[in-house]
Write a structure and sequence with these properties.
Order of helices and strands of chain B: EEEHEEHEHHHEHEHEE
Strand order of the largest sheet of chain A: 2-3-8-5-7-6
Radius of gyration of chain B: 17 Å
CATH superfamily of chain B: P-loop containing nucleotide triphosphate hydrolases
Number of strands of chain A: 12
CATH topology of chain B: Rossmann fold
Structural class of chain A: alpha+beta
Helix content of chain B: 25-40%
Strand content of chain B: 25-35%
Helix content of chain A: 55-70%
Number of helices of chain B: 7
Shape of chain B: globular
Oligomer: heterodimer
Distance between the termini of chain A: 27 Å
CATH architecture of chain B: 3-Layer(aba) Sandwich
Number of domains of chain B: 1
Order of helices and strands of chain A: HHEHEEHEEHEEHEHEHHEHHHHEHEHHH
Number of helices of chain A: 17
Low-confidence stretches of chain A: none
Distance between the termini of chain B: 24 Å
Mean pLDDT of chain B: 89
Strand content of chain A: 15-25%
Chain lengths: 406, 234
């Protein structure tokens, strides 16, 4: 009876209830869509950043990230690759040799990060091969070839077909020298990569830097970052038993991680503000309706209804309103998010710019239980908790004075 | 005979700022089972305040009031609510029904609070509605009932739990003459036939004409308390 009474009370003033409901639904649906959008876009951001060069994770010798010395290298990269590829969720593994050297062309010399890559497996973990704008990427038959970022090529005044001299130091302290022919120039859209990274065949790097069959890292990828995340614990174990560490995406791209965290924090502040404002609006409306019914509550007290039961009834009205609003918000916001998850959102000319930087020209929200529940859930909890105000107000009512209310 | 309502030196003083306004002054009163008593007096004489204290709606400043042997003076809010629920029926001046409930649901509501099983409370609600002449109108909400019909529902609601006493505060004040007469006749008949005890605060001479015990109040004191044999028959 209390439930039926609360529900009917809500519809005494249908317009007011509908407006209150609309504000919960609109805010809740907006939160569902915005969170789905953020989760989707940030996921794409992570994927794009990681796919461009790092891979979803890397296996390394402990301490290598802080002090990338060739002596901190993996002794059995081929065995590591096999072990990683045996784990579900991992569909690509590529050994790399990372070294530093001076590249010279004519009278120009620039410091560069030389990455020795396996031309066959590297394109499976990195999109750099797809970013070639002039010439071609490395292939399995290559030996003394090199691809450069476009800024580095411009700085060196090097073009496809030019020969560059490499001068560095090998793992054993010997002087590492080589002469390499530029076969391709890439434009990744990431200035740091374009300015400093040059790729040469893995075997050539192992020879030039006197590293033998070793590699400094094994970069890994999967069908998607979320699918790959399931493989992380097993990859961690594989690394641990070999005395290695697994660098996850957040270690490889701390700027992306921090940027996403910052965006979530600033968005959360906005969302909390929205939830608080809507909660106050709803509470204000309910409190108004409670004040209007003071005399009626006096009568209910007079006929023997306990103040706490009347308070519960009023609270139930709020909980029902919040529940209905939250459910509708999930349905409407979810439907919107799912529609755009399928169709994507184009964002005009900006799409061309973001495409250049590895982001797709369409952004896809990612609807999930988290994005569906967190916003409407927060609204429901806030409004329901706010119900303590009218509850306490009603509990304090005295029958005689309440009945004298206008 | 044991009194259903017993007031001893019952006093209520309201404090307005620094001013003390006595509303009820040292009232002694017993209401016997089966009484059909009216409580009359000019506005401000204290009859509603007295009725509210008897009904546990207001607390006395001093003195004692008990209903059906239970002293109300030291009971807390919840215990007073329980006493009202179990022992007292109320009929108010304005139509005090829950607007979102039908006539039957309004009567049933109070029985629901008493945890009466569903079938029993439906039967009882229909029975009392028939008693007050509203058979066939069980499903109407208050907005679809006339003022007189709403007061009849209020009487039915008061009778539903079979209370020890029904307290009515100006029950005819908002009714036209014919409807008021019908309501008085109904209450008087319920008293005669079913022995239900009524204490009615009223100005209405028609109600007073039906009363078999008439109490007058002036300035918070009882100035007349007489039993009458010449009351208008129900």
């Amino acid at each position: 009876m209390l439930f039926a009474l609360a529900w009917r009370n809500l519809w005494r003033q249908p317009r007011r209830t509908l407006l209150s409901l609309a504000s919960i639904v609109f805010t809740g649906a907006l939160l569902v869509f915005m969170l789905s959008f953020q989760i989707g876009v940030y996921g794409q951001m992570k994927e794009s950043a990681l796919k461009l060069f790092d891979g979803y994770a890397q296996m390394q010798v402990p301490g290598y990230a802080d002090d990338p010395d060739l002596r901190r290298s993996l002794t059995d990269p081929a065995g590591l690759k096999s072990a990683a590829l045996a784990i579900p969720g991992v569909d690509a593994a590529a050994a790399r040799v990372n070294a530093f050297a001076i590249l010279s062309h004519g009278e120009r010399s620039f410091g560069s990060a030389i990455v020795g890559v396996d031309p066959t497996s590297e394109p499976l973990v990195s999109k750099l091969a797809a970013s070639i704008t002039t010439g071609r990427y490395l292939n399995a038959a290559d030996s003394d070839t090199i691809v450069l970022g476009q800024t580095l090529a411009r700085n060196l005044k090097a073009a496809v077909g030019d020969k560059l001299t490499l001068l560095g130091s090998g793992m054993d302290g010997s002087v590492a020298t080589d002469v390499l022919t530029v076969v391709g120039i890439y434009d990744s859209g990431i200035p740091e990569l374009d300015r400093s990274v040059a790729e040469i065949p893995l075997s050539r790097a192992q020879e030039t830097f006197s590293i033998g069959p070793r590699a400094t890292t094994v970069a890994l990828a999967g069908p998607s970052l979320s699918a790959f995340q399931n493989a992380v614990p097993a990859l961690g174990n594989v690394s641990r038993v070999r005395g290695l560490i697994l660098k996850e995406w957040s270690d490889l791209e701390p700027e992306v991680r921090d940027s996403i965290t910052l965006k979530y924090v600033t968005s959360a502040m906005l969302y909390v503000t929205l939830v608080v404002v809507v909660t106050f609006i709803i509470l204000n409306t309910l409190l108004m309706s409670v004040l209007e019914r003071t005399r009626e509550f006096g009568v209910l007290l007079a006929i023997g209804m306990r103040p706490s039961v009347i308070g519960q009834m009023v609270w139930l009205e709020l909980v029902l309103l919040a529940s209905a609003g939250a459910i509708l918000a999930i349905l409407i916001g979810g439907a919107l998010a799912l529609y755009f998850e399928g169709h994507g959102i184009m964002y005009g000319d900006l799409g061309k710019v973001t495409a250049q930087y590895g982001l797709p020209s369409r952004l896809y929200p990612e609807f999930s239980a988290l994005s569906a529940l967190i916003g409407p859930g927060a609204l429901f909890v806030a409004i329901s908790l706010g119900g303590i105000v009218p509850y306490l107000h009603v509990r304090r009512l005295e029958a005689a004075s309440a009945m004298r209310a206008a | 005979m044991i009194a259903i309502v017993s007031c001893r030196t019952l006093t209520k003083t309201y404090v307005q700022g620094t001013l003390e306004v006595p509303a009820v002054r040292s009232v002694d009163l017993d209401i016997e089972p089966g009484d059909f008593a009216t409580l009359a007096g000019p506005s401000g004489s204290g009859k509603t305040t007295l009725l509210n204290m008897i009904g546990g709606l207001d607390r006395p400043t001093s003195g004692e009031v008990s209903v059906d042997g239970v002293s109300l003076t030291k009971l807390d809010k919840n215990a007073l609510a329980d006493i009202r629920l179990h022992k007292i029926g109320f009929v108010f001046q304005t139509y005090s029904l829950v607007p979102v409930l039908s006539a039957e649901e309004n009567v049933e509501f109070i029985l629901r609070l008493l945890d009466v099983p569903v079938r029993e409370r439906r039967t009882r609600a229909r029975e009392v509605l028939r008693q007050v002449g509203l058979a066939g109108m069980e499903d109407r909400r208050p907005a679809r009932l006339s003022g007189g019909q709403q007061q009849r529902v209020a009487v039915a609601r008061a009778l539903g739990p079979k209370p020890a006493i029904v307290l009515a505060d100006e029950p005819t004040a908002n009714l036209d003459s014919k409807t008021a007469e019908e309501l008085i006749g109904l209450m008087s008949n319920l008293n005669t036939v079913s022995g239900i005890t009524f204490l009615i605060a009223t100005h209405d001479s028609r109600v007073i004409a039906h009363s078999r015990r008439h109490i007058e109040m002036t300035d918070g004191r009882i100035t007349l308390d007489e039993r009458r044999n010449n009351a208008v028959a129900a």
